[in-house]
């Protein structure tokens, strides 16, 4: 059984035919799904009743019920969604001037274990299927017109490559939601095989890489994934990706007080980043997480020093403020939750 939201717009005709249904109905289905945004086949009133009944049994909608909305004073909203097996995921909506960005999750929990990230603090429960990721988007777009997606919620997209890519291709499809590829950013902690695969897709998604440290000793301490794919291998994959796609990579660098915030770190980082053509850096102060009270947010002065060192070495750098902290919706604060609290 296929789920309606997991089917690519261009697949509908063939899939209907396979089920012994009339393929010409595909256009009406696509209009119902992506013009009328139905979430129940009974609402597809342009289709005959018996046809709708077949759609209900063969291609059901994915239930992702919004259990809770946490609002931050800065306008950020975090939705807690319950999936059909009772697992929950979080998605965050971030309004800004002329933009409405949705941060989506690709897994329940995460196996990567970055020390300062709440999402991985209890390990991986399971990966999301494409239709569940699209269901997250659908829950988000009910609250406003989504202009951008960042795949920066819970989970590692390159550890759930196929389903994540399918979902993003559906959201990007011209006959689907039609969100432009350049408005969709995928963020990886450095799962190297994903880079080649993404380059081969030939789609202009944006790519961010969570770096967080300029050398193996520090990076392996902060991010266990570095033991599998050390920094030089990661940077080589970044170079290859940039050369193959001519697309810019953005490195995310979460600054942790007293851990990776020294001038020497900034200097070493500049050197590494400059080895990747056109690469940029986003500096993000650590968001506090309860499982690691020893990891502290750096002060403003340190952030500015770090920025200055990078800029003086010709690295294009942005200071980012993580939004939604008072709703536990900021970077690294999304976590595993079970119904009834955790
Ligand atoms: N697994 C992917 C997608 C998650 S993106 C990745 O690692 O890129 C979430 C971003 O927030 C990552 O850059 C992550 O390292 C960062 N992050 C995690 N915990 C954080 C924290 N406590 N404060 C600030 N950023 C954090």
Spatial order of strands in the largest sheet: 1-2-3-4-7-8-9-10-11-12
Proportion in β-strands: 15-25%
- Under the CATH scheme, which architecture of the largest domain would be assigned? Alpha-Beta Barrel
Radius of gyration: 21 Å
What is the ordering of alpha helices and beta strands?
Answer: HHHEEEEEEHEHEHEHHHEHEHE
The total number of structural domains is 2
Count of helical segments? 11
Structural class: alpha/beta
CATH hierarchy, class of the largest domain: Alpha Beta
- How far apart are the termini? 33 Å
CATH topology of the largest domain: TIM Barrel
Question: Mean of residue pLDDT?
Answer: 96
Low-pLDDT runs of 5+ residues are none
- Name the CATH superfamily classification of the largest domain: Aldolase class I
Oligomer: single chain
User: How many β-strand runs?
Assistant: 12
Largest sheet: 10 strands, mixed
Helical content, roughly? 25-40%
Q: Any ligands, ions or cofactors bound here, and which?
A: S-adenosyl-L-homocysteine
Broad shape: elongated
């Amino acid at each position: 059984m296929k789920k309606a939201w997991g089917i690519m717009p261009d697949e509908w005709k063939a899939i209907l035919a396979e089920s012994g249904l009339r393929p010409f109905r595909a256009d009406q289905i696509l209009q119902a799904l992506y013009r009328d945004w139905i979430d129940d086949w009974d609402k597809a009133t342009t289709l005959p009743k018996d046809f709708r009944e077949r759609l209900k049994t063969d291609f059901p909608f994915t239930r992702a019920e919004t259990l809770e909305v946490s609002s931050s004073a800065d306008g950020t909203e975090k939705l807690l969604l319950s999936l059909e097996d009772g697992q929950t995921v979080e998605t965050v909506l971030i309004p800004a001037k002329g933009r409405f960005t949705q941060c989506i999750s690709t897994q329940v929990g995460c196996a990567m274990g970055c020390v300062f990230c709440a999402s991985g603090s209890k390990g991986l429960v399971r990966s999301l299927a494409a239709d569940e990721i699209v269901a997250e988007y659908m829950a988000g777009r009910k609250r406003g017109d989504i202009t951008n997606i960042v795949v920066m919620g819970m989970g590692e997209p390159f550890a759930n490559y196929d389903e994540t890519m399918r979902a993003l291709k559906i959201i990007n499809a011209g006959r689907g939601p039609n969100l432009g590829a350049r408005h969709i950013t995928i963020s990886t902690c450095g799962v190297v095989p994903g880079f080649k695969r993404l380059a081969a897709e030939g789609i202009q998604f944006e790519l961010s890489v969570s770096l967080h440290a300029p050398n193996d000793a520090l990076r392996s301490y902060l991010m266990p994934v570095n033991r599998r794919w050390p920094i030089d291998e990661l940077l080589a994959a970044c170079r290859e990706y940039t050369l193959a796609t001519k697309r810019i990579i953005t490195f995310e660098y979460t600054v942790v007080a007293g851990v990776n915030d020294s001038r020497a770190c900034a200097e070493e980082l500049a050197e590494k980043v400059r080895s990747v053509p056109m690469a940029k850096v986003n500096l993000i102060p650590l968001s506090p997480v309860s499982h690691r009270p020893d990891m502290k947010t750096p002060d403003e002065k340190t952030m500015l020093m770090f920025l200055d060192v990078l800029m003086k070495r010709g690295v294009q750098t942005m200071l980012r403020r993580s939004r939604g902290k008072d709703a536990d919706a900021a970077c690294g604060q999304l976590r595993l939750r079970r119904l009834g609290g955790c």
